Amino acid sequence: MGINYLLIFVIVLPGLAIGGYLRYRFDGLMDRYSQLENSSSTTAREVGKDFLEEYDLVDISIEETPEGKGNSYDPLDGTVYLNEPEETSIAAVTIAAHEAAHAFQGQRLDRFFRTRSATLPVANLASQLGLILAFAGALFYEPLLFTGIYIYLASLLGASVFLPLEFDAGKRALAFLGKNEVLKGRELREAGKLLRTAALTHLASVAISFFQFLRRLVLVQP
After folding, report:
1. In the list 94, 117, 169, 203, which could disulfide-bond 101, CB 3.0-4.6 Å?
2. pTM for the full model?
């Protein structure tokens, strides 16, 4: 039991703390840059539209986000959803360019992007199944423990494979914002900071899932 709790304090808790800090930092940057207008007075919708037109993605539409959906690109209906399409804040135009970049990925990297979209629900289901089997194994039947661990780790690996898409979308968004002078100078640096933190937050979410899994597993061990 002493070793188990040592594992929590030495490995698990620091991992959770780092992940939590990145999430907190991203939320703080979003709040700050949502209150700063961009100097070009370009709206989020205009940024998304111009990005899509630049890459001749005329079949992609831009709509205001339905309640509960969040900023996203949906490859199933070919739509970029934005929470605040008429906003002109640094955060709004940065997110718009980022989601439009995902639309570019969906069209030009079709097979890879659609594989991502199709496998995410499977990965989520596998992670839940892995948790159930691992905890059942820890409590009742040891062979289930290792089966659950393998399934859970496989689901995390599947999710992490697509993290490069987030970094690529951020890179394309920042290049577009700078080239078209939507953002300039310090604004562009702030957008870069926001996009890098967003990408790291996605990475941290995978790590947090793993550390949460370790913590729960250690706590149910007899």
Report:
1. 169
2. 0.71
